[in-house]
């Protein structure tokens, strides 16, 4: 709720809460592999933020901030966090679903 109260000045933790919402929604759809689930969420965080009422440009920036900061940090941390990361989760790579409203679409 604090993320939705001020998305334009969201903290990393608040943006991570958006990703948890999206990530768990992907599990509900049936995906159980954590790296695939997380990459599906990365690509849909922009859409999810807009569905929650966040203005378009801010939703895009929040979603890109998650991908460029928190998501990339998972690779550096490794261990359990690393199981949620894949270098194939990137534009044009194997996990790119080519969604028309993807976080990383132009
Ligand atoms: Zn999960």
List the helices and strands and how they pair.
Blueprint: H1 2-5, H2 12-29, H3 34-51, H4 56-77, H5 79-82
Helix pairs in contact: 2-3, 2-4, 3-4
The structure holds zinc ion.
Zinc ion binds at residues 23, 27, 34, 37.
What does the model show?
The protein has 106 residues and is an all-alpha fold. It has helices at residues 2-5, 12-29, 34-51, 56-77, 79-82. It contains five helices and no strands. The longest helix has 22 residues, at 56-77. Zinc ion (ZN) binds next to helix 2 and helix 3.
Note the gap between the termini: 28 Å
Helix content: 55-70%
Largest sheet, if any?
none
Give a count of the beta strands, DSSP E runs of length 2 or more: 0
Structural key phrases:
106 residues, mainly alpha, binds zinc ion
Quick summary of this structure?
By secondary structure, the chain is mainly alpha-helical.
């Amino acid at each position: 709720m604090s993320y939705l109260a001020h998305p334009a000045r969201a903290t990393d933790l608040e943006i991570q809460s958006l990703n948890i919402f999206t990530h768990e929604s992907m599990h509900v759809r049936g995906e159980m592999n954590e790296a695939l689930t997380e990459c599906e969420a990365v690509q849909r965080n922009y859409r999810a933020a807009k569905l929650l009422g966040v203005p378009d440009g801010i939703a895009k920036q929040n979603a890109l901030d998650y991908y460029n900061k928190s998501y990339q940090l998972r690779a550096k941390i490794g261990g359990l966090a690393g199981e949620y990361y894949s270098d194939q989760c990137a534009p044009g790579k194997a996990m790119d679903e080519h969604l028309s409203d993807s976080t990383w679409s132009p």
